[in-house]
Design brief:
Elements lengths: L2 H25 L9 E5 L18 H10 L6 E5 L3 E3 L4 E3 L10 E5 L6 E3 L1 E3 L5 E4 L2 E5 L9 E3 L2 E5 L1 E10 L2 E3 L11 E3 L2 E4 L6 H4 L7 E5 L4 E11 L4 E5 L3 H4 L12 E8 L10 E5 L4 E4 L12 E4 L5 E4 L7 E7 L2 E3 L6 E3 L2 E5 L6 E2 L15 E2 L3 E6 L1 E7 L2 E5 L2 E5 L3 E7 L2 E5 L4 E3 L32 E6 L2 E3 L11 E3 L3 E6 L2 E5 L4 E3 L23 E6 L2 E5 L6 E6 L2 E8 L2 E5 L9 E6 L4 E6 L2 E3 L5 E4 L10 E3 L2 E2 L15 E3 L2 E2 L7 H9 L4 H12 L11 H33 L1
Parallel strand pairs: 1-2, 2-5, 3-6, 4-23, 5-24, 6-25, 11-20, 23-30, 24-31, 25-32, 30-33, 31-34, 32-35, 33-36, 34-37, 35-38, 36-39, 37-40, 38-41, 39-42, 40-43, 41-44, 42-45, 43-46, 44-47, 45-48, 46-49, 47-50, 48-51, 49-52, 50-53, 52-54, 53-55
Antiparallel strand pairs: 7-22, 8-9, 9-21, 10-11, 10-22, 12-15, 12-19, 13-14, 15-18, 16-17, 16-19, 17-18, 17-27, 20-21, 26-27, 28-29
Helix pairs in contact: 1-7
């Protein structure tokens, strides 16, 4: 072989090797370790590709749509690069978005912390309005209830005015509207003391103003229709029918007309505190009073837009969504403008996060809570099985964080952080799940109004909730516990940390005694059987009931056979000493039955009840034994409920816990391994895509360029050889 031929051979060989390498680079979406299929998403690319590593999709929706076209049985990984992905619409996973025999995982790329955002980043210029207030334009046509600056929640303007009684009448006729379930007459509005300079009478966008009253365990929100003046007061007319709906509950939950503290939100003239904002939907102008150190020219300012980011929605009990996993992702910045009924807005709850959405009889037990429903949340799951949400964060929400609503089974939540939620961090089950398949039945009133059809309704079962952190919950809706479990069975809530909740840390059970099957209960002879055999163990509860009261760090309702509450650590419950008879470490409230609680460590004010076993009605057969507490008090009532066993309480007054108590304390909450991951993820600062570059494409083009160059060299060498042969 001549030297020229050898050179040609070497060049040709290199050409073949690089071509093979290039082909394997551009088509390598199969993971050799487990034969899974990898699909890539990178929001920084200029143009969406085919999902390969060197030509990724630009949006998650494109990857989701592509996955639907695949028919193989490989496990599929959708790998998402770093950055903030602003969604224009919710990601809805239906029965066509999973594979029967494989798992589809949407996960962060190695070392990345991608954010799926329901909000929009403000980049418009801010103008000083004087007095510390700045403004900018905002293309939006509805009320704004939340704003986020540098990852911190900002609030609507607020002031308090004395409520001075009700006026007027608003009548409801049963059946006249779909929300009118009963006849009734309610008050048309509330008298308010004159505010300074009669601001309310002349303020802008009066229908965006909210009136809020509080009970011991609830907040009640109605919206203003308009203000009028009489000789003595300002008359605030309610938006109807929600203003009427807000008056139908009882026991202090209803809207309160006579109170020194009517909280009034969203009045422009009261924009006078750092961290407050006001949005004028008429002029499309956003006003903000910056906190100290905030530079609006460089701040990361987000306006929430979507109510929901991810929704997993099966069709019925025979058509469930299956085999989906979400790992290492953050879901943030959602919007919500209260419940809308007949063109009016508001939010009236009756303990926990369920809100009225219809006008019905005040005796809500009798219609089995069918007028109550849940609101949108950042991440919702219904009619699904084999779902895993791991190492994710859900934060900065307009309402709840994560809801497992109906017919969810065999689902795992592990290593997640849910924080800064307007409502509850996590809800499991639905308030209408007292009885399953009861639509059009003889159970209670208005069974035709039951939300779920017979073939759709099912309780949540086999839910594993472990090593998650829930913090700073219910930032708008103080009456929502951090965790709400209406119904759940054969499930675990273990090794979680729940902290900084304005009401209870966790509420489990529903139905009070009214669903226990007694002769005078709503359904005689048939107690509800949808919440049982659950483990509430090894959890840490810190700083709960920071605003409201009449609950405990752990709060229970109803008959829950097989439920164990054990080895939890509770620290600091309640903030006001005047509520010593309404704040407890654990509150076994009305109807709580068949619960075992042992080896819990309760470090609270010794004036409070450690475990309230008072005679609240129709409970009993509970056993509380071998617990530790700084309080020796068993009840806030004169008597302990008959049939309840309270024994072997170890009272510690000097903070000198014994070895077993210290072991419980040290073992409670999120493990160190998961806590390190949660902290690292929540402290990460993903940025918006600054440059639209496709690194894979650049590398691919470089390889292609090299191939072309080598090919050119080879061709040139070949031509030179030919010429030399001709010359010879």
């Amino acid at each position: 072989m001549t030297k020229t031929n050898k050179l040609y051979f070497v060049i040709a060989f290199l050409f073949i090797l690089i071509t093979i390498a290039s082909l394997s680079f551009t088509t390598d979406i199969v993971n050799a370790e487990d034969n899974s299929l990898n699909i890539y998403v990178n929001g920084a690319v200029k143009k969406s590709g085919d999902g390969s590593i060197d030509s990724p999709f630009k949006t998650i929706k494109e990857a989701k749509d592509y996955v639907k076209t695949l028919s193989n049985n490989k496990n599929i990984n959708v790998i998402i690069a770093d950055g903030i992905y602003e969604l224009n619409e919710s990601l809805v996973f239906g029965i066509n978005d999973f594979k029967q025999n494989s798992t589809i995982t949407y996960k962060a790329a190695q070392g990345a912390h991608p954010v799926l955002s329901g909000g929009k980043h403000i980049t418009s210029k801010w103008t000083s309005e004087g007095n510390g207030i700045y403004s900018t334009t905002l293309d939006r046509n509805k009320k704004l209830r939340s704003l986020y600056v540098n990852g911190k929640r900002c609030y609507m303007t607020c002031n308090t005015i004395r409520g001075c009684g009700a006026f007027g009448s608003y009548e409801v006729t049963e059946g006249e509207y779909d929300w009118a379930w009963a006849d009734g007459a309610e008050r048309a509005g509330v008298y308010l003391e004159y505010d300074e300079d009669n601001i309310l009478l002349n303020t802008r966008n009066q229908d965006d103003i909210e009136l809020v009253t509080r009970s011991t365990w609830n907040t009640n929100t109605v919206c203003v229709d308009h203000f009028e003046e009489n000789a003595v007061y300002i008359m605030a007319y309610f938006q109807m029918p929600y203003g009427a709906i807000a008056q139908t509950v009882r026991w202090g939950n209803e809207y309160t007309f006579n109170t020194p503290d009517t909280y009034i939100y969203n009045v422009f003239e009261w924009l006078d505190e750092p961290g407050e904002f006001y949005f004028d939907k008429t002029t499309h102008k956003l006003y903000y009073y910056p906190r100290e150190g905030e530079d609006l020219n460089t701040a990361d300012i987000v306006v929430p837009n979507l109510e929901n980011i991810v929704s997993i929605e099966g069709e019925d009990n025979d058509n469930l969504v299956k085999n989906l996993t979400f790992d290492g992702l953050t879901f943030a910045y959602t919007d919500w403008n209260l419940h809308e009924v007949g063109g009016s807005h508001g939010r009236t709850t009756n303990q926990a996060a369920a809100a009225l959405t219809a006008y019905a009889e005040w005796q809500w037990h009798e219609y089995i809570y069918r007028a109550y429903d849940l609101a949108p949340c950042a991440f919702s799951v219904t009619s699904a099985t084999n779902i895993t949400i791991s190492n994710c964060s859900i934060c900065h929400t307009g309402n709840d964080g994560l809801d497992l609503i109906n017919a969810v089974s065999n689902t795992t939540l592990v290593g997640n952080s849910i924080y800064d939620t307007a409502g509850a961090a996590l809800i499991v089950g639905h308030p209408q799940h007292m009885y399953i398949g009861d639509k059009d039945s003889d159970k209670g009133n208005h069974s035709d109004k039951e939300k779920y059809d017979v073939n759709v309704e099912a309780a949540c079962t086999n839910i594993d909730i472990e090593n998650n952190q829930f913090s700073y919950t219910s930032q708008h809706f103080y009456g929502d516990p951090g965790i709400v479990i209406y119904t759940m069975n054969n499930s675990k809530f273990e090794h979680n940390t729940v902290q900084e909740t304005p009401y209870a840390g966790i509420s489990i059970g529903w139905g009070w005694w009214n669903m226990n099957g007694d002769p005078d209960s709503v359904v005689p002879g048939e107690g509800y059987a949808t919440c049982h055999d659950n483990s509430i163990c090894y959890n840490k509860f810190l700083n709960t009931l920071t605003v409201l009261n009449d609950a405990g760090a752990i709060y229970t309702l109803g008959d829950m056979p097989g439920t164990v509450i054990s080895e939890n650590y509770i620290k600091n419950v309640g903030t006001e000493s005047s509520h010593v008879d309404k704040v407890r470490g654990i509150h076994a409230d009305e109807g709580t039955k068949n619960v075992l609680g042992e080896r819990n460590v309760i470090d609270i004010d010794p004036r409070l009840a450690c475990i309230d076993c008072g005679d609240w009605g129709r409970k009993g057969h509970n056993t509380w034994r071998n617990n530790y507490s700084t309080s020796a008090r068993w009840s806030t009532e004169p008597n302990i409920e008959p049939g309840t066993v309270c024994e072997n309480l170890v009272v510690v007054t000097d903070g000198n816990w014994n070895d077993e108590a210290l072991s419980v304390k040290n073992n409670a909450g999120v493990s160190a391994e998961y806590m390190a991951t949660i902290t690292e993820r929540d402290n990460a600062k993903p940025s918006y895509f600054e440059e639209e570059k496709n690194l894979g494409l650049i590398i691919g083009l470089s390889v292609a360029g090299g191939i072309v160059l080598i090919g050119a060299i080879a061709a040139a060498a070949f031509i030179v050889t030919k010429k030399k042969k001709k010359q010879a």
